[in-house]
Amino acid sequence: MVETATDLLLGGRLKLEQPLRGHRAGTDAILLAAAVPLDVGGPLADAGAGVGTAGLVAGLVRPGLDLLLIEREPELAALAEANLARNGLKGRVMTCDLLEAKSRRAAGLEDGVADLVISNPPFLDPGEGRASPDSLRARAHVFDAPDGIESWIRACVAIGSAQAEIILIHRADRLPELLEALKGRTGGVRVIPVHPHAGEEASRVLIRAKKGSRAPFQLRPPLVLHEADGRFTPAVEVIHRGEGCINW
Fold first, then answer.
1. Is the pLDDT of residue 134 over 70?
2. What's the CA dihedral at 77, 80, 85, 88 to 10 degrees?
């Protein structure tokens, strides 16, 4: 049994039960949710949802979304189910292996069902870096498949509808691989570099792409997370309160 605690996000608007140890909700999930366009109607799929943080934040900020929270680990999927109910949001939790079409179908997740797919994919390939001693955290951070990013993008595109948008947050140094995986599957790719502080290298990138689009690539203005004293910048502080969104 996973030991959990209930935390408050968005200035107390979101009640989130999550494991006390291991992978926990943070700025990446908040930024991913803030990247959801204001005019999206749904269904919205959160691929690799964990306890549902990004999808739940998007659902609270943009009421009316039909949420599909896709998670492989049964313990986390159960928490995501409870978090949906706890926050009065409409949606379903699909417990399956995102990378396996057979597993998706067995869970009732058909291809082409989502108008928007958001995801914070695992950050590490097998054998890269030092795995966490916490098993849930390790499985959240490390791809099982040898073609990790490629297979993850392929699955996200597969569950998207004919003109679905895909929004991702990932390590900045993996941008070339992400763009290569999106190539031929999507177009109109937009990238926002995310910098911990002004003048520092980007640590994350936000990526938005659209199936069936032939629009050109855009490198958007950067987003800076912290002031020199460590506080969030005003724009990011507003996002953490659920009162702002990413400017695409």
1. no
2. -140
